[in-house]
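Appendix B, record 7
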Amino acid sequence: MEVYALICATTFAAAVLRGLTGFGFALAAVPALSLFLPPARAVTIAILLQCMVGLRDILSTRGLVMYRTLGIMAIGAVVGTPLGLWGLTQLSPDVMRVVLAVIVAIGLAALLLKIRLPSGPGPAIGAGLTAGVFSGLAAMPGPPAIAYFLGTDTPAKNTRASAMVFFFLTSLMALPGLWLAQNIDVQVFTQALIALPALLVGTWAGGRAFARLGEGGYRLAAIGLLGITAAVTALRGIGGLL
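Structure tokens (predicted):
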């Protein structure tokens, strides 16, 4: 029962960040869950939860989602996700933790540098491809996707809505690979299902906070989230390798 309580508490905290930024869930949940669960199980729980809540996200944000851009990004993600899933099955838990930290640090660097991307389908496909790799590897499509949206100066409300729906799509893409790799079983599905209410309540709370943020506050929240996650995960992974 202690493990279930930890999963629910972690899910709630990560969901608040998800509701606040639109992309905080896996970035926070997977490294935190991997502190007391194998990283592959943490990734699987995060993906299952994002699939479970995805339809609700589509309905609640449908007026703000950039559907054309998401369609282009999804094409890239279809190619990238199997590559990430292959990496997930090949890496040890501590190496996975280091990889997670590097992934988060990439997103942080993109935000700090305020990278600007040209318009057109090329950058969108590239962002989708990279996000797919990150999704399959660590349930973290966030860094490249958010870097893309912020790099094209997309308003915060559209970035948040589009990111939430995109992460639902990438989670769906990852499910077949997780099933084939035998990462989905009754226990992990039960853990995700029990944590679902915590995800819903946390997302609602984060959404209330987002309504009070301006564009600057949104960026600061994203930078802070990425920085803390990268530091904690890197220390755990490096400590295990030493």
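Remarks on this record: Residues 215-241 form the longest helix (27 residues). Residues 49 and 196 are 6 Å apart (CA to CA).
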